[in-house]
Specification:
The chain has helices at about 10-20, 25-35, 40-70, 75-80, 90-120, 130-140, 145-160, 165-195, 195-205, 215-225, 235-240, 250-275, 285-300, 300-335, 340-360, 375-405, 405-415, 420-445, 450-455. By secondary structure, the chain is an all-alpha fold. Bound molecules: phenylalanine and sodium ion.
Length: about 450
């Protein structure tokens, strides 16, 4: 049943593909606005702790599961525990999360495509900040326009995943990721030189623990998973293409380091602008769409930079989205024996359909509340990042920490020369990660959220 797999061509190729999956809208679009909504500094600290103590060990565990079994997320558990094992649920939760996330991720990626188009037409040049802010509100109220871009983005994913991910994406990542970094560095410097710089830095790094609720701790945990592409079958699947002698610790550290750096730079680029122009840091999902074009409309060369920025953001979204699609496609290929074309076409089509209510969240379906007072868009986001990802992370850490054979895990680390880290890693995955996730989930469940959602169904 398990056909011989094509593996990543080189170590760099693997790191770039995995970093391409990790670095995406989560870093540049989502991180700044969730920091803004959750009060800044204290949230950032909790997020960093979650990344190091929970995210990093689980990333290594997902790579180990994938590489050891050479299967998709469901298949990995089937191979280790047999067809009837309850652990297979962990694979299913992951794949379900990947499916739901792709549907709304693509809508947001569509917004970035729309902004590329606007930048090309020069819509941001010489207009006041308020007009630019209004453009975003206009866009999310325009269902057909969002659906069109959502369709374009899904088709791009489809095209790439059908053709096989490795070659094109590996090559393009190498060229485009450095440009994205350079552009971010520029925006970061712009932020540091602006008059809101100090306020922005203070907002991000001065912890005010009064503002921290159980909800924001869960949000930080969920975002740590989201940003590192964990709990979504993506890293298990990408892990299944890693060579035996690759160093999992070194690679994971590089991927995590890059992801965190880019998120922090995005925050430090955006909050100073937010404070300079007197915007609300808690402005929500529109935050970067309202701030970045304002900066570009004011600096020389801004016309070109705006095009580049949204183009590269679209590219970052694309390398993430294809890993979400690939994780689901791998299941149909590995477990159901489907061909790649048929699997990709079906799943991309489904992602398009399920994304429709998200695209209509702020107009025709605005009155349709799923979780509490939330729109469909917010509900899909909340359900996945706040619940499905932590739950899948919890299952994976309990399985790997308590039920998978220690000698096989150690082998995975020894093969790449980092066997020494085994005791530390094992301690984190066995005790710290599951208890941290369980505690946070427990408090959040008590606080409302999911219970209220069940209440709403009746
Ligand atoms: N990590 C991506 C981001 O930060 C999102 C993503 C999640 C991509 C899961 C793939 C899998 O934008
Ligand atoms: Na990320």
């Amino acid at each position: 049943q398990t056909a011989p797999r094509s593996l990543w061509a080189s170590r760099l190729g693997f790191i770039l593909a995995a970093a391409g999956s990790a670095v995406g809208l989560g870093n540049i679009w989502k991180f700044p606005y969730v920091v803004g909504e959750n009060g800044g500094g204290a949230f950032v600290l909790v997020y960093l702790a979650c990344i190091l103590l929970v995210g990093l060990p689980i990333m290594m565990a997902e790579f180990m599961l994938g590489r050891h079994t050479r299967r998709d997320a469901v298949g990995a558990f089937v191979q280790l525990e047999g067809k009837r094992s309850p652990w297979i649920a962990a694979g299913w939760v992951s794949i379900t999360a990947a499916f739901l996330i792709l549907s709304y991720y693509s809508v947001v990626a569509g917004w970035t495509l729309d902004y590329v188009y606007r930048a090309l037409r020069g819509s941001f040049s010489g207009v006041p900040a308020a007009t630019i802010e209004g453009m975003f509100d206009g866009l999310i109220a325009d269902g057909p326009r969002q659906i069109l871009w959502h369709l374009v983005f899904i088709c791009l994913c489809l095209g790439i995943v059908i053709g096989g991910v490795q070659k094109g994406i590996e090559r393009w990542s190498k060229i485009l990721m450095p440009i994205l970094l350079a552009l971010l560095a520029l925006l970061f410097m712009n932020g540091m030189l602006s008059k809101g710089a100090w306020e922005g830095i203070a907002f991000m790094f001065r912890p005010d623990f009064e503002k921290l609720t159980a909800g924001s701790v869960l949000e930080a945990m969920g975002h740590a998973f989201f940003t590192l592409s964990l709990g979504m079958a993506a890293m298990i699947t990408y892990g299944s293409y890693i060579k035996r002698n690759e160093d999992l610790l070194g690679s994971s550290l590089r991927i995590v380091g890059l992801d965190v750096t880019i998120a922090l730079m995005a925050g430090l680029a955006i909050f100073p602008i937010v404070f300079s122009v007197g915007m609300e840091p808690g402005a929500g999902p529109g935050l970067i769409f309202k701030t970045i074009p304002v900066v570009f409309s004011r600096i020389p060369g801004g016309f070109v930079l705006a095009i580049l920025f949204f183009l590269l953001l679209s590219f970052a979204a694309l390398t993430s989205a294809i890993s979400l699609l690939e994780a689901q496609v791998a299941y149909l290929i590995d477990e159901r024996g489907w061909g790649r074309k048929r699997a990709t076409a079906l799943l991309a089509g489904l992602a398009f359909l399920v994304g429709l209510p998200t695209a209509l969240s702020y107009n025709s379906l605005a009155q349709w509340h799923l979780i509490g007072e939330r729109t469909f868009f917010d509900s899909a986001d909340l359900l996945t990042s706040n619940y499905l990802l932590p739950i899948s992370g919890l299952l994976i850490s309990i399985y790997v920490g308590w039920f998978w054979s220690g000698s096989e895990e150690k082998q995975e680390l020894v093969a790449g020369g980092s066997g020494w880290v085994y005791p530390l890693w094992h301690f984190l995955i066995r005790y710290i990660a599951p208890s941290a996730i369980a505690i946070v989930l427990f408090f959040k469940m008590r606080e409302t959220g999911l219970f209220a959602w069940f209440g709403n169904l009746f």
